[in-house]
Amino acid sequence: MESNPVLLESKSSPINLLNEMQQLRLLGHLCDVTVSVEYQGVRAEFPAHKAVLAATSKFFKDVFLNEKSVDGPRSNVFLNEVQVADFASFLEFVYTARVEVEEDRVQRMLEIAEKLKCLDLSETCFQLKKQMLESVLLELQNFSESQNSEEESAAHPSIAPAAEAEPDPPDSSIAGPGHGASPEGPAAKPKEK
Question: Which CATH architecture has domain 13-65+74-134?
Fold first, then answer.
């Protein structure tokens, strides 16, 4: 009697795999490529794993898969016009699926994602920029609405009080000078407007 197949799936395995690869990279273990980056005279070298870079970046995948067997496997890749901090953030993202950067660096991260053809980072930056833009637009809309309501209340300050004040004139006409009515009553209303 055959039993039905069951699915064994780990929710934590992808995260654990990324964490372990990141630890191996940080310790320099099993790294088979060094990426050298230089920007305006600032240069740094980053040990990494070809498999991780190729799996996350079409640029690196093309570089590693198109190596000539005559030259042997490439152990160094040189990137110019890439800032050291940006490439460090790129590596952290591809090894952990997350990275914290300043808001003003999001555009640069998008540019490096496009240069290195890293779709995940590109989509993440694009979504964050979209959220930031929506937030700014919402703030502008709220500011504009508050300005409009202030202008309307400045232009028509007595709309609400005038509706409440309409019953007063009949009362003041009934109340004559000897019945507690003030001669200033009707004159005070235009001041409120």
Answer: 2-Layer Sandwich (3.30)
